[in-house]
Amino acid sequence: MSRRIPRRQVFASVALVVALGFGGCLTLGPTVTADTGNSAVFEQVSSDEPWASGRVKASVNLTQDATTDQGVTKLVVVTESGSSFDTTTVETGQTSGISLYFPANGNATVTAVNTVNGTVVGTQPVTTSGNKLF
Question: InterPro entries under this entry (predicted)?
Answer without folding.
Answer: TAT_signal
